Amino acid sequence: MVKKEIISLTGELSSGKGVVSKILMNDLNYGVYRNGDYFRKLAQEKGMSVTQFNEYVKQHTEIDIEIENSAKEYAKEHNKFIIDARLGWYAVPESFKVYLTVDIDVAAKRAFDNQDIQKKQTEKFNTIEEQKQDMIKRYKLENERYYIVYGVRKEDMSNYDLVIDTTNLTPGEVADIIKKEYFIWLEE
Questions:
Q1: What are phi and psi of 133, to 5 degrees?
Q2: How many Cα atoms sit within 13 Å of 52 on the Cβ side?
């Protein structure tokens, strides 16, 4: 397989994908492709939370397939970009595949404290515990859906070139690890 100068960044909810992808974009002068923004937009258009839309998409797999295929199509015409998408690694196997993990309690606090307006419109919780329970539910829904639709398990770490636990790292430290390993991968 011919490698492309593409980093596919996926991982657990609130593991730092968005912030790390912005750092990588700036440091590498790469573009970005985000499936999550499109997913949230569709959820908002339907008047659903992200979790409700996950349940809806489980019954309407054509939406999921359309979203994931969009990354594959984008990669055919572009190079030097970051895919910030749950199945970017699957859609573009010739990319450098990175998975970010995080402790669920840290992830719930990060998500609850996040001030992103678009996220807050589709995720409204009164406590960190409510946020955490919703994140656990979303994680399970996504994993079930991806296995049913694509026959893949995103939580199988053998799918990735690099796995990083972001629990006790800053986004800058995570980006530095990714850049170091990415350049090694490109040279191999």
A1: -65, -40
A2: 12
